[in-house]
Amino acid sequence: MKTIALLFSLIFVVTSACILNAQDTNLADGPHEQLIIRGVTLINGDGAPPRGPVDIVVEKNIIKEIKVVGYPGVDIKAENRPQLKQGGKELDASGMYLMPGFIDMHGHIGGVAQGADWEYVFKLWMAHGITTIREPSGRSIDWALDLKHRSEENSIVAPRIFAYTGFGQTTKNFNPLNDAPIGTPEEARAWVRANAKNGADGIKFFGAEPEIMAAALDENKKLGLRSACHHAQLSVARWNVLHSARAGLTSMEHWYGLPEALFNDRTVQDYPLDYNYQNEQNRFEEAGKLWKQAAEPYSEH
Description:
alpha/beta
């Protein structure tokens, strides 16, 4: 997580652009026993209008006090402000705004194919106010969990990370079925339990046989983990968003599986004769046409 970590991932939003140099390693500061952000205008994220100036006191990663200290354009009386403790740090945020950090619910950390490693991606996110990300499977769960732990230890400049394992994924250190594919509901449940024990925050699904999806989601829900599903066309005719929701899925990705759940005169989408799933142009173009094949808006479906 970011070195100066606030309970709600509070960040500064300034009117000028901020560019982080990926090669600059001298960006970290803190954590501090006490941090006071002074004179800032607060947008708290619950629908209230901006308010300031306020002083915000943070101690050990917890917001201890949010105190209104005056009025715009009026000198602030020092005796009315929270007092800085010995060893604490204060930031003059006059003329700045402070608001909750953004949460990227589908943020792949990057990889070799993208030409960007984690350091660049993390700094880019942080510079744009993203202080928490959910990594819905990527290079490997080992890699994601290592970065998650380093973030928690404040040893890298990074957002908070929620790491999801791709369903059935194995790594050098995570291979609960000894390279056997998940072929039964019992194996699905065993894999899910192992994933929880391994420290993952959830599972990313792409689809599977209905009985396997049902078992995996049921077990995952019992363990209190979260789940995401990209309802790929390879399985969506037998398992769409409604099936997943009833089984305990906590989020769908990219809206795939939703229009298919709204079909009322078909089960399979209207594929053109030359469609090929491996052709991404085919895949994305035809996905965009799904809504016209679904039930009419405001219909009884």
